[in-house]
Amino acid sequence: xxxxTQMEGPVTLSEEAFLTINCTYTATGYPSxxxxxxxxxxxxxxxxxxxxxxxxxxxxxxEATYRKETTSFHLEKGSVQVSxxxxxxxxxxxxxxxxxxxxxxQGTTLQVKP
Amino acid sequence: NAGVTQxxxxxxxxTGQSMTLQCAQDMNHNSMYWYRQDPGMGLRLIxxxxxxxxxxxxxxxxxxxxxxxxxxxxxxxxxxAAPSQTSVYFCASxxxxxxxxxxxxxxxxxx
Lengths: 114, 111
Prior knowledge:
Chain A has 114 residues and is mainly beta.
């Protein structure tokens, strides 16, 4: 079946460090891929998305490229800030008819220290 | 424009009690969803409603019922709460293709 696997957390970085959070997926057909972010005590917010192979999603300095050959959608940021501390979820939508149902990875906690 | 709102924000129940979690959106979205979030497991879909008047089971529907009261509102009911239902519950709705908007969540503890 369809699934999403993220790297284990927590990830602890110093401010201005480079961030990579790995995400790989298993899906039939051509899913759309997403990164959502959850700040402490809040709901999830869409961070970026890509809807077809080789698309690059980007937002707030974060970016991820839809790699069909490696079934991956790794999240990167060149210089993290303390305010980026949050839980990051990789997700995909699947199925014909686009019911919009999301399948999530388990989430990766990022802590950025000053 | 409040987006997706959920009530209550926190709730403590005893085993066997019932309750309804409320969700409303003011964005004129057709589809709405209920997820639960558990540590180390991401979010899992409980039920969804593709349009007013329709509901379908998701990945973990057992122990829950839903009602799509109108286009704005989608409620989740626990008829007889169990400790395994201790979780954070999120409601979401969809605007354009694929982009879901989430509410702030309800943190439920079942003793």
